[in-house]
Amino acid sequence: MIQYAKYIKTNADWLPSIPSHWKEQRVKAIFNLRNERSYRSLSDVNLISLYSRVGVIQHSDIEHTTGNRASNADGYKIVHKGDIIVNILLCWMGAIGMSTYDGVTSPAYDVYLPKSGVNSQYYHYLFRTPSFSQQCFRSGKGIMAMRWRTYSPQFCDIAVPVPPRIEQDQIVRFLDWKVSEINRLINIKRSEIHRLFQIVQQLITNEMQGEKIWLKRLLLSPLQYGANSSGTILTEGLPRYIRITDIDSNGNLKMHGAKSIELQDAKQYILEDGDILLARSGSVGKSLLYKKSYGFCAYAGYLIRARLNKKMILPEYFLYFTRSSEFEQWKDSVFIQTTIQNISADRYGRLPVPVPDIETQKRIVAKLDVVTEKIKTEIKILEKEIATLQEYKTRLISDVVTGQIDVRNIEVPEYEFVDEDNDFEADNDEELEKVEEQED
Questions:
Q1: Which of 35, 155, 219, 407 is the most exposed place for a label (fewest CB within 10 A)?
Q2: Phi and psi of 268, rounded to 5°?
Q3: For the segment 182-210, what is each residue's pLDDT rounded down to a tens digit?
Q4: How far is CA 183 from CA 24, 106, 186, 270, 393, in A?
């Protein structure tokens, strides 16, 4: 990879320099705000949403939604192929994307029509870079991060690079090719992780035995929803605030991105050793066994706390049960009944759990700890490799769209484009978390 021969300084803090033949212009110089409205019924429109990781997606392509889908589309904004959609609440987290569909989207989003000579896909790449996201935050306003908004006047005033159109096209061709190569590697590793998860699931399922008892009969106290409060900066002396996004795919508590909750908001939601947290929306069924080693913690509203009667069932045994195919089949049956990915405390209470005697539970847990440990280690290695590839992809895109790498003379071979198999549930968890905090 080589750089351009000559660079010039810009007036934008987030973009120190650009190739000398590029222009620097405000967003409003290259995009017009589209404010066309639809008043057709929901059944007659193509509903489009925007997510930080996944980008723009049709609801028809989502197997399940969170249940927040509108009942009608009156006043929804019309979107055309090539338009840029901006979430004014979350654009500073990368919630910007180009639509490849015609349809309608929420009035809470801004929709931008590219002017003549603009390749929207180039700006799709540019607008989703970390440095541009930071500029969206700096241009926005609000009383705290989770209530931050970047309105259209501020967004339109951000300075961006404008390469010649022929160069925008070449950058898009190059990035589509390289991104596709990286996505292919990521997908291979994700497929291997899925295979390993299936092995673990089968090992667990084979050990589940005993009389089926409803979960609500195995509790010391009723199932309880979490706090509907905003997280704050992690602060010594305040409880850590556990949200769906804090639980990884292996059911462990993530150490990065932690937040606190104010004491007065946390009082009813303080966790005790052995409590189980169950996701009720988003990644429904995702579970965490709280350990006192995690420290002083409370939990958020899209989680449900199960405080088990340890004389009847061990928390470790129940946690393994939530990794079994029997539990997955139960979840699927609930979704069929409800049509959305949302399981209430009442429904969780009627979850049938196979419960052998305590000594048998101890033996099952000990056996599963041993037989699944190696596989879990392999999964962690693959997840780290995926994270490294994603970091490389992000850096490559950023360097190319800002002109730090010259790709004009690189010949792009014939290839079949491959999308990354995005974890929609993880992205959905973040959206739910922000909705919850905005509603507080």
A1: 35
A2: -80, -5
A3: 999 999 999 999 999 999 999 999 999 99
A4: 31, 29, 5, 41, 9
